[in-house]
Design goal:
The chain is an alpha/beta fold and 387 residues long. It contains 17 helices and twelve strands. This is DUF3800 domain-containing protein.
């Protein structure tokens, strides 16, 4: 006779309605409701970020990038054999990775002609590129601002919350270990109600000690905001959480992309933990369950393309993240012809994809980082207020 457990039905899946989960403006955005097959890989996946006595478990804070290529319905990648030949990939190589094209830091990678061959092939293919670019540091600290502006008496700060988050990130970035140690002392992100005032006073004191002279109006506003917030009744996103856990996992970003492109099919590189989490949900577009799958990259060349692209994008965004705008422009001015050409190809790829559908490009980073990238990659003016 079967055991009782053998007769139990699998747990009922939680239904996620894509139309409710995704941003409302996507309903009217060009390309967002078209049909694609999106292929994904990721880079800098630290799996989990948590506080320790001396800081965080991973203090590199490299940007997490989830991205790849999007093929419009009916399109295919052609010329793959010619690409492999041009890249001098041996026939015995089971899958293509960034290391087969270039190794080293971002500037060394940009200097490799094979990167240009790959980007030019991709630019002339029917594929678009797509990515989520996540600043791990920024994502792990922004709940403080969001918790305060959620209170009725601070609603008037809603319009400038992105500027407040940007200034918080700008200061913390200079000494993330010190800030993480402060958070640890308050069992963040699980602040006891009776310690709210002490916590906010400590955060404000830390920020002022690191940056006594505000660089702009937004920084002045951050200090005033925290001074007023010391009397907040609650910090809604910083209670009833597990102590010390800043990022449990990245599954929400996978959900975000599946729901953003609700009429598409999604193919991810194997990521066992994320796959197990997503199995808990039925992700639906009306009565239709949105198809997604996880595959070994060896079995699908499009995922291998996503791997190379994500590796390059991860190098790019961390290069931008880790340098000031002045340093970036000086470095760029010293690029050789190959580096300039490859950077231009990357810019064209992003522009091509953004023109087709702005939702292909998703940045969850600070205003500083976005503006630096706009100037470094797209040659747009850098705002004086951020200098």
């Amino acid at each position: 006779m079967p055991k009782t457990s053998d007769l139990e039905s699998p747990p009922e899946r939680l239904i996620i309605d894509a139309a409710s989960f995704r941003s409302p403006e996507l309903e009217f955005m060009r390309g967002a409701n078209d049909e694609y097959i999106l292929y994904y890989d990721e880079t800098n996946n630290i799996r989990k970020l948590y506080l320790k006595e001396n800081g965080a478990n991973d203090e590199e804070y490299k940007n997490f990038v989830l991205g790849g290529i999007a093929l419009p319905k009916g399109s295919t990648l052609s010329g793959t054999d010619e690409l492999k030949k041009a890249l001098q990939i041996q026939k015995t190589t089971k899958e293509i990775k960034l290391e087969h094209l270039a190794k080293g830091d971002y500037e060394k990678i940009l200097a490799q002609p094979k990167i240009g061959i790959f980007l030019d092939w991709l630019l002339n293919s029917p594929a678009y590129i797509h990515y989520t670019n996540l600043s791990i540091l920024n994502w792990s600290i922004l709940d403080l601002v969001e918790s305060i502006v959620a209170e009725d008496e601070f609603k008037h700060y809603l319009m400038m919350q992105w500027d407040l988050k940007n200034e918080l990130h700008h200061i913390v970035k200079a000494d993330p270990r010190g800030y993480m140690q402060l958070l640890k002392s308050f069992s963040y992100p699980n602040i006891a109600h009776e310690r709210i005032q002490e916590f906010i006073d400590s955060v404000r004191g830390y920020l002022i000690s690191k940056n006594p002279t505000p660089r702009n109006i937004a920084c002045h506003a951050l200090y005033a905001f925290l001074q007023q917030a010391r009397n907040a009744k609650d910090l809604v996103f910083l209670v009833d959480n597990e102590n010390d856990i800043l990022i449990e996992d990245f599954h929400v970003f996978y959900l975000n992309r599946i729901c953003a492109f609700k009429n598409s099919q999604h193919v991810f590189d194997n990521e066992r933990k994320i796959e197990q989490i997503l199995k808990r949900y039925k992700i639906a577009n009306g009565n239709r369950e949105i198809p997604y799958s996880f595959f070994d990259s060896e079995s699908d060349f499009a995922i291998q393309v996503a791997d190379v692209l994500c590796g390059l994008l991860g190098k790019h965004f961390n290069f931008v993240e880790n340098h000031s705008i002045h340093e970036l422009l000086v470095r760029k001015s010293n690029f050789n012809e190959t580096q300039r050409s490859n950077l231009k190809l990357l810019e064209k790829l992003i522009d091509k994809s953004d023109d087709a559908c702005p939702a292909f490009i998703f940045n969850s980073t600070s205003i500083d980082s976005i503006q630096k990238n706009q100037t470094f990659l797209h040659n747009l003016p850098y705002p004086m207020v951020l200098q």
